[in-house]
Amino acid sequence: MGRIAGVTPEETRERLLDAAARVFELKGYEGATVAQIAREAGVSSGAIYAHYAGKAELLVDALRAHRERAVASVLAQDGSTDAASLLFALASRLGTREHEATALLAEALLASRRDAELAQVLAAALGEREQLMAALIGRGQAEGGISDDVSSETAARFALMLSLGSMLVRSLDLPATDPADWTAFMRRLIDAFTQETTP
Fold first, then answer.
1. Would you report the helix, strand and coil content of the chain in percent, each value rounded to 5?
2. What is the per-residue pLDDT across 23-47, written as a single tens digit (0 to 9) for each?
């Protein structure tokens, strides 16, 4: 079974990413096979290799696809484009992450300790996200909305570490914090780095 008739290469890629996410979450990185992912997507293994060099690239692209959806949902809820408001929206979501997205990233992080190729690809993907965050913070500093007494790169590394830590805590299924308390704490934290009070 190759490409599905009437399905574009982009649609095939989306099917592969959704199938890969489900299989990696269910079987783990080491337990998942290209054949299982192809079967879940309804395509041949050759269709996967037409889009990806291997399982590591497929896992990272699945992570990117699911991460972008989560970021898009944050941006859709907050119409503002200033850095301080966006940071507050992102920080507020740390306590309410979707389990599926965090399970996939947790599996990737664990597998990357044993798979040098995956570690390299994952480090590049997370490094790209960190650079985007540094640019966002830098823009906020240049516009005067965020304090410039800390480098944007250091703040971005802290944000990355906080985000990954929250993902690991979420995977433990600990009891949720009170949403109002979480929001108040995040507001206080973000306000410490902004020139004006966040909305």
1. 75, 0, 25
2. 988 888 888 999 999 999 998 888 8
